[in-house]
Specification:
The protein is α/β, with parallel strands linked by helices and 175 residues long. The chain has two domains: 2-29 and 108-171, no CATH class; 33-96, no CATH class. Helices cover 26% and strands 25% of the residues. The chain is built from four helices and nine strands; from the N terminus they run E-E-E-E-H-E-H-E-H-E-H-E-E. It has helices at residues 50-59, 82-92, 104-117, 141-151; strands at 2-5, 9-12, 19-22, 33-37, 69-73, 98-101, 128-132, 157-162, 165-171. Helix 2 links the parallel strand 5 and strand 6. 16% of the residues are buried. The model is unreliable at 10-16 (pLDDT under 50).
Length: 175
């Protein structure tokens, strides 16, 4: 929002406001994501044969997952024993930067949850905070909800969007 002052003076009210922008995109982990679907190791898409699976674990090139965030799950409607996922985690752990059970979408939610848990939220005490709405990277809705849950008890006001165009969410009452 820009206002004309006097004859030629232009004042940028957004830049001079006390709004603090909270950008969730800053908490995005940039490592490559990978999905390991255990269904490809099931006999006839239904059954996990222990010997065949152990052979696969032993022979597979796990270094392809080096420094990746790996989600492991099964997309088929099969009963997979828990130990199979554990065995996968053992094989992946020396290479992957993180091994997670679930879908890539669930992994993304977990990554943001972990990042947001590390923030010193006190820095936002009594601030007027705008949670930035536009980002170049995908930020899951769960991250916006988590940020809201953490900010609402401590801020004086909470908004969504951009400093020049916000949607009010919360304002602390003045008792």
């Amino acid at each position: 929002m820009i206002m004309l002052m006097e004859e030629n003076e232009i004042v940028n009210r957004v830049a001079s406001s006390s709004l603090v922008t909270f950008d969730l995109e800053e908490y995005y982990r940039s490592e490559e994501r990978a999905l390991f679907d255990i269904k490809d190791q099931l006999f006839q898409g239904l059954i996990l044969k222990e010997k065949d699976f152990r052979d696969f674990i032993k022979e597979n090139n796990w270094s392809q997952y080096k420094n990746k965030l790996v989600a492991i799950y099964c997309s088929s409607d099969a009963i997979v024993p828990t130990w199979a996922y554990m065995l996968l985690a053992v094989a992946l752990e020396p290479f992957a930067s993180k091994v997670f059970f679930g879908t890539l979408q669930e992994l993304e939610c977990e990554l943001f949850r972990e990042s947001l848990a590390k923030i010193d939220w006190e820095q936002y005490r009594n601030a007027k905070v705008v949670v930035k709405g536009c980002s170049k990277k995908h930020v899951p809705v769960s991250a916006y909800v988590e940020a809201t849950n953490r900010l609402r008890p401590i801020v004086s006001s909470l908004m969504f969007g951009e400093p020049c165009s916000t949607v009010p969410l919360y304002k602390k009452s003045r008792h």
